[in-house]
Amino acid sequence: MAFDYEQYIRPSTFPHIWCPGCGNGIVVKALIRAIHKMGWSKDDVVVVSGIGCSSRTSGYLDFNTLHTTHGRAIAFATGIKIAKPRLHVIVVTGDGDALAIGGNHLIHAARRNMDLTVILFNNSIYAMTGGQYSPATPEGKMASTAPYGQVEPNFDIVRLTEGAGASFVARSTVYHAAQLEGYIAKALDREGFSLVEAVTQCPTVYGRRNRTPNPVTFLEHFKKDSVPREKAEKMTDEEREGKIITGIFVDHPRIGFIERYRKMSERASEVRKRRYIQGSGPKSEVGN
Amino acid sequence: MTPRAEGEKKGRDVRLMQGNEACAEGALAAGCRFFAGYPITPSSEIAEVLSLYLPRVGGNFIQMEDEIASIAAVIGASIAGVKSMTATSGPGFSLKQENIGFACMAEIPCVIIDVMRSGPSTGHPTGPSQADLMQTRWGTHGDHPMIVLVPSSVREVFSETIRAFNLAERFRTPVILLMDEILAHMREKVVIPDPAEYSVVDRLSPGGPKDKYLPYANDRDVSPLAAFGEGYRFHITGLYHDETGFPTGLPEQVRCQAERLIGKIERGAEEIRNVEQIVPEDQQGSLDTVVVAFGSTARAANHAVKEAWQRGKNVGFFRPVTIWPFPIRELGEFCRGVRRIIVPELSFGQLAGEVRKWIEPSSRLVPLNRVDALPISPEEILDRILEVD
Ligand SMILES: Cc1ncc(C[n+]2csc(CCOP(=O)(O)OP(=O)(O)O)c2C)c(N)n1
Ligand code: SF4
């Protein structure tokens, strides 16, 4: 029997805003199937997003949904998770949203091992605003603000979040929809901070500028140029050039923030004697 | 329950405390159970006190990576149903503006404490100032409502912090409590009232069928707000939205939301307003002079006015405790027929500019500004009152 997506979407909000051939829908379907696998009640699922084409996802889904400000979804999600830990809090974000304006929140949530799952839609561009370069635009690619080609190197999202302390990090593409779903399900299952980079396409504002206006060209590229992590490890740097390395890169179960905070609160509650901090804080004239 | 209310002390609880401590205590008394902040002088003690107490009362404290994240987390926690607050000073307050606008637009109750220091930029971190007054009103972009409270004693910081939470819950909107460095660090006696002596307001929670819930109904000013996780699966956005919360660009729906957003505070103004007005006991005829001041400057002004009475001057004192929405009607009535209005403040005239808008053209406005990071003394104000003109 075909999977019933309708039980997780809000039909009244359709048609959606995405262009024909956009990869966002494939990521959303993988996300829905992964959530379904978890068997959670819809009432207990929260989807928080930032601003961008990808971040419009939240409105279409029949959960508790929050569409925040550009880059700040992870910070809003942090407040929700701490205030009500029983909720499953998922962040949907774009490469510009998560890596540029929201980069600070991303690395700190990973460092704290905040109990959130981030689904990062990486289409290598600021799509919603018309195709300006993002921190994920590969060097040499065209963007509306890089008419001579992008001169900056791009972030490796996996290494960035691994270095910052994430518990689980994986990457897949919209060509590998089943694999993507599997990684998202694993991420949802983990305690602490988990992130899945979903490599996706924007044929409209990225493809057209980079001579790949056809969505099929993207999918062919994702198929042909993806290399599983195990295989990539045996390749030279030169061979890895231009490849999308897929797989699970980090899967270290670690106690998440919520549990650590709970334990500290227990200790604090035992302190019956009031320790009042008289006159703490800077006294000098040079406070900052 | 405040930590004190857990039975740690019996009888009348009288304490010598700092404005910042009173603010933290007031927040706990109002039911605040989530604080997110980023350290900044002269507000840091609020975070320090709450980091100590919140874990002990089942609440949560987190020091975020910056002020933008702090206000975001505060809004998130409130969406999950927990009363929440952040505290900062000028530079951090500037950073919070975009998300304060989000809370206005999405109608999420929360409290923001701004302890003013002198600026712009890093300015004078421990120097008092009152120059964020207009930023509290217009700091975030676009038309929006704003409630701002300006206490002027440590005791009042405690009670106004409770009121800030109550108004935020009542009107589903962010409320700013504006203090200055003097008040934040000054120590005064505070009688902590028994919880039975003050009221605590909680947001309306929805009844009725869950699938019919409208978080932004057009037929009322303030709709109930369901917490995430209670079975009302709805959408919240900073985009203009329809009654369900889903984005819309339809002119009629945009107008409707925009008008209701502003209107709910305008129509609620009587409930929100709080002013102190003092006239000489033996007042005859209309006042000759009125002194208008807020925050720590109002303390000096109050002193100066009483001193002027000793010298037979017919002077009144007007102090907004709620400064936004501005007490237009009260100020207009109080200043009717008054010859002269003196406005002492620690800025280049932000309050004076607002006062000028609402007084009779025949009244002469006399600003008294100090911007050297020192307080205005009662003598300076008295001199101005006694000035022959
Ligand atoms: C503070 C702020 N700055 C800029 C913008 C404009 N803006 C909207 S979406 C966007 C980029 C989104 O890019 P990305 O996160 O990669 O998402 P995509 O649209 O590609 O899915 C920008 C810059 C904004 N809304 N807010
Ligand atoms: S502009 Fe690009 S990312 Fe946005 S909806 Fe269209 S194809 Fe998708």
Oligomer: heterodimer
Low-pLDDT stretches of chain B = 5-9
Report the β-strand fraction of chain A as a percent range: 15-25%
The ligands found in this model are: thiamine diphosphate, iron/sulfur cluster
How would you name the CATH homologous superfamily of chain A? Thiamin diphosphate (ThDP)-binding fold, Pyr/PP domains
The CATH architecture of the largest domain in chain B is 3-Layer(aba) Sandwich
Within the largest sheet of chain A, what's the order of strands?
2-1-3-4-8-7-10-9
From the 3D structure, determine the CATH topology of the largest domain in chain B: Rossmann fold
Radius of gyration of chain A using CA atoms only: 20 Å
Order of H and E elements of chain B? EHEHEHEHEHEHEHEEHHEEHEEHEHEH
Mean pLDDT of chain A: 94
What share of the residues of chain A lie within helices? 25-40%
Largest interface, per-chain counts? A-B, 53 and 59 residues
- Total helical elements of chain B: 13
- Characterize the main sheet of chain A: 8 strands, mixed
**Class of secondary structure makeup of chain A:** alpha/beta
| N-to-C SSE string of chain A, H for helix and E for strand | HEHEHEHHEEEHEHEHHEHHEH
Short description:
The complex is a heterodimer of chains A (288) and B (389). By secondary structure, chain A is α/β, with parallel strands linked by helices.
